[in-house]
Hints:
- This protein is mainly alpha-helical.
- The chain folds into 2 domains: about 5-60 and about 65-140, Orthogonal Bundle (Helix Hairpins), CATH 1.10.287.1080; about 175-230 and about 255-305, Helix Hairpins (Orthogonal Bundle), CATH 1.10.287.1080.
- It has helices spanning about 5-20, 25-30, 35-50, 55, 95-120, 130-140, 155-170, 185-200, 205-230, 250-255, 265-285, 290-305.
- The radius of gyration is 25 Å and the shape is globular.
- It starts with a helix and ends with a helix.
- Mean pLDDT is about 80; it is low at about 75-80 and about 240-265.
Amino acid sequence: MAEGSYDRLGELTDLVKILRSGCPWDRAQTHRSLRPYLLEESYEVIDALDDLPRAEADHTDVAPAVTEPQSPRALPAHVPGRVGLAQGKPPDTELDAAVAHLAEELGDLLFQICFHSELAAEKGWFTIDEVAEGVTAKLTRRHPHVFGGPPAADAGEVAQMWEERKALENPTQTVLDSIPRALPALASAQKAYRRLVSRSIVGAVDVTTACLEAGRALDRLLPVTKRAMQQPVQGEAGQSSGPGAVADPSPELSGLGEPVEDVVSSDAWHLVGQLLNAIVVVAEHLGVDAELALRESVREMIAGVG
Length: 306
């Protein structure tokens, strides 16, 4: 790590302490009250990553392989940034602007991590140093092929070793317990399928079968969709929206007391779920992240009508 890097992080953690003592808003915050900000900053990092020019985002250069066993203190030094963020240097290119945006959003996320760590330290739970120490120890344990253990043949073997070591470290945890409850549905489905297959809890579905399942779900959805398209539904002001408008059957979203079951049957929910699950299996076989693929498709759709 470059000289001064620790000082910069130290300055940030000191700043959090100052804000906690000097700012009424920061002083009033709790772990619970900060949750929406942590989630928002995480999504803003994802947006910044999506904004990287595709040519750079798809760049395939990798760090050179290291044959000698390493220790955490022997990791490569930090490379100075290309856009002079702290000095406020204006970006020269589209890539510079995207990189500056990414660095800014990562900084906002890092602030949230430091903030939560400071709250924990005030309660005597742990400090930011213990957070860093813990993740360093975990990553070292789970990369034995880097730190003196037997080599790994490829990235697939590394992933398998990671899961095996994770299971040994958490023997009471089931294969699905560590999937975050707040994970988006497509990402959750793909992670669950991958883990169940990797542990041979369910058999792997071949891509042809998954495509056939998706087709069957679409076939079963067609008559439901036709019925919904043929019936008028109530608009926001209580006026009929006419044929072709599909009601939202969720009372929480529509504001109605009961689902509109005469427009979209409850079977549609199950069939759409089956269809999405089948698509997730197809995506897994193709090595495609279903969640990111859908995000990219939505971004293209928005750009096309913007």
